[in-house]
Amino acid sequence: MRTPEATEGLVDLYCQKLKLPGVRQIYREAARQALAQGDDPVCFLEACLRHELDQRAQRNLQLRLKQARFPWVKTLADFDFTAIPKLPKARVLALADGRFIRQREVVLMVGQTGTGKTHCAIALGLAAIEAGFRVRFIRVVELVQELLAADKEFRLPAYLKAWQKVDLVILDELGYLGLGPGGPLLFHFCSDRYERGALIVKTNLEFSRWGEVFGDATLTAALLDRLTHRSHVLLFEGESYRFRESRRRHEALQAAAARPPTGDGGQTVIDPGSPN
Question: Which of 2, 32, 39, 238 gets the highest tally of CB atoms within 10 A of its CB?
């Protein structure tokens, strides 16, 4: 007759072969609870399988988060909409439902540095990951370097095809540097995604100045025609977040310096000649 220890060893083995680490992790405790509470065996099985599904969902979430390559994690709950009063909060929150990703649309975030574009883009990317989408965050300069390398090595079609597996691509920092020979390749990349996958483009330049980045007016016009066809344009107009923080620190230091000196024990030293 098989011992309980031998039976557990077989269950461990079967879980390993069937790739059920969640069941293996919980079945002993679940079995003890089922016996103590007099639960039906089916309830015990349901608890084990539910735990397995929960564990898989958590692992998949962590994997998608790692694959996204966010520089940091931000949420819309942390975003200060009061600092950018002209930004339509309702429209931004509506984008978090992921409909624009399912419809393969474009979100264009336009505004000066430090106004919260990256925060907002990452927050929408995080919401997409939590909804089960595959997301990738990449700086435009880094993408262009990869495109140039792929083109030089005659593997550009394969490189572009690999991006089709990503549901949402977030392009960061368009406009900070001219693209030179990489301009046509970035145009090719965006055109390849047109109506195939969702895109968020974050830029500090208004559309009329994109020609400065791509160096070709005709190519720029063609790209803008594609990107704005089915797009959501968000304008970030306001004071730089970093500038606001720097000013607050400076004001706090000035206020501290203006306070009267204190004596021992932190008590304010009063001038005997004062009215107080």
Answer: 238
Taking only Cα atoms into account, the Rg of the chain, rounded to an integer number of angstroms, comes to 28
- In this predicted model, what pLDDT tens digit does every residue of 150-196 receive, in sequence order? 999 999 999 999 999 999 999 999 988 889 999 999 999 999 998 89
DSSP H/E element including 129: helix 117-130
Residue type, 190: C
- Three-state DSSP class for residue 25: helix
Question: How confident is the model at residue 273, as a pLDDT?
Answer: 45
Q: What secondary structure does DSSP assign to 232-244, as a single string?
A: EEEEE-S--HHHH
User: Which DSSP string do the residues of 28-92 spell out, in sequence order?
Assistant: HHHHHHHHHHT--HHHHHHHHHHHHHHHHHHHHHHHHHHHHT-SS---GGG--GGGSTTS-HHHH
Give residue 238's pLDDT.
73
User: Which neighbouring-strand residues pair with 231?
Assistant: 106
Which residue type is seen at 25? Answer: Q
pLDDT grade, residue 113 (50/70/90)?
Answer: confident
pLDDT tens-digit profile of 25-44? 999 999 899 889 988 889 99
Q: Which residues contact 228 (CB under 8 A, 6 or more apart)?
A: 106, 108, 207
Q: Of 239, 201, 233, whose CA–CA distance to 112 is shortest?
A: 239
Contact 106, 118 (CB under 8 A): no
In the chain, the domains with their CATH numbers are 4-59 (no CATH), 76-236 (3.40.50.300)
For the record, the structure tokens of 116 come out as 């919260």
Q: Which region, left, alpha or beta, applies to residue 24 given φ > 0 means left and ψ of -120 to 50 means alpha?
A: alpha
